[in-house]
Design a protein that fits this description.
The protein has about 350 residues and is an alpha/beta fold. The relative contact order is 0.18. It is built from 16 helices and twelve strands. Bound molecules: flavin mononucleotide. The site of flavin mononucleotide (FMN) has 27 residues, from helix 1, strand 7 and helix 13.
């Protein structure tokens, strides 16, 4: 296991870079601009009739939004997670811890307890597949129970690891580890990317070993390869710079997974409630938002509250303007695609029709 202070220093770097650094994709977008929902000029519904409620990871959400996995393992992370979790509780949305590796490696508890401020919110634990593969399921269950989490997210991040100076270089055995944990853990398991997206082929392989929930973690929002680029030595910085725009755009990843026996959360460049409406129209059950909510939290808890409220108001507006009373209706709302989205969906293994 690496030294704990290294992990804590890395987590601190990540937070600073994600809040104020140049870490967005440069050329690539999530492709929300390549899908339009068709306007309904005569919606036979009242705003208050619109239901945003959905079920995710075995829990009911008041709105189909989760605060995506970001942080833990430092005092600063602890304060951030308390704000994020309290906001999730207030809005009836989900909250995800960042990687619990610091807790696993050396028992660092900072930031991994939020149940006192979020007694009833959906709370999701988090571990990288490489770390999860290296420990028995009982040890992972202890982490989940320590944090009072309802479910565990296992993250896949080979792009970030390849760009990270101290990153993992051996990705063998990931699927077998996921199969073991899904069958033994006893709480729902979600498998997520962290910014490079999931293809249909990966979705099929996950479904075949019993996974029921995935998160696209698609390209177009925060680029983890860009984050690592800022931390790297000159040689690896050049490699990371080459790959900073690597990945499947989130909209294409969501559409490519449609029809598989998987609940899909769309994360990666979901910056507004309108983006969320498009993701749900493409087949997502809910959306995840990481950096935009982190940046709002940096302005204070009230700013975070306003950001979540505005996000949900936009989603509700899109539902009214498409004449959709429920999220199920939104799944089949008429839409228009522009290139390169259909080409991307086909290339990621989906049906662009
Ligand atoms: C500061 C920060 C830390 C993150 N740490 C983790 C992590 O520990 N585990 C994980 O699965 N994803 C992590 N992510 C990835 C996010 O969950 C998400 O997949 C990615 O940032 C794309 O979403 P965005 O475009 O809304 O930022 C992190 C993201 C940010 C911004």
């Amino acid at each position: 296991m690496p030294d704990t202070s290294d992990i804590a220093a890395r987590k601190a770097d990540h937070l600073t870079l994600a809040t104020s650094g140049d870490v967005a994709f440069h050329q690539k977008t999530a492709l929300w601009e390549a899908i339009d929902l068709v306007h309904d000029a005569l919606p036979e519904l009242a705003v208050d009739e619109v239901s945003l409620s959905t079920e995710w990871l075995g829990r009911r959400l008041r709105a189909p939004v989760v605060i995506a996995a970001m942080t833990g393992g430092t005092a600063r992370a602890a304060a951030i997670n308390r704000d994020l979790a309290a906001a999730a509780e207030a809005h009836g949305i989900g909250f995800c811890f960042g990687s619990q590796r610091p807790l696993l490696a050396r028992g660092i508890e900072d930031g991994y307890r939020v149940r006192d401020v979020a007694p009833s919110a959906l709370v999701v634990g988090n571990l990288g597949v490489v770390q999860a593969a290296a420990v028995p399921t009982a040890r992972i269950r202890e982490l989940v129970e320590f944090s009072g989490a309802d479910a565990l997210a296992i993250h896949l991040n080979p792009g970030q690891e390849m760009a990270q100076p101290e990153g993992d270089r051996d990705f063998r055995g990931g699927l077998a580890a996921i199969e073991r944990i899904v069958s033994e853990l006893g709480v729902p398991v979600l498998v997520k990317e962290t910014g490079c997206g999931l293809s249909r082929r990966v979705g099929e392989r996950l479904a075949a070993v019993g996974v029921r929930y995935v998160d696209t973690g698609g390209a177009g929002g925060t680029s983890w390869i860009a984050v690592e680029m800022h931390r790297a030595d000159p040689e690896r910085r050049a490699l990371a710079a080459r790959f900073r725009d690597w990945g499947i755009p989130t909209a294409a990843s969501v559409a490519a997974l449609r029809g598989l026996p998987l609940g899909v959360c769309a994360t990666g460049g979901v910056a507004s409630g309108l983006d969320a409406a498009k993701a749900i129209a493409l087949g997502a059950t809910c959306v995840g938002v990481a950096r935009p909510f982190l940046q709002a939290q940096a302005e204070g808890a009230a700013a975070l509250d306003r950001a979540i409220e505005a996000f949900i108001a936009e989603l509700r507006t899109a539902m009214v303007l498409t004449g959709c009373r429920t999220l199920t209706e939104l799944h089949t709302a008429p839409r228009v695609f522009a290139e390169p989205l259909p080409r991307w969906i086909a290339a990621a293994g989906g049906s662009p029709g």
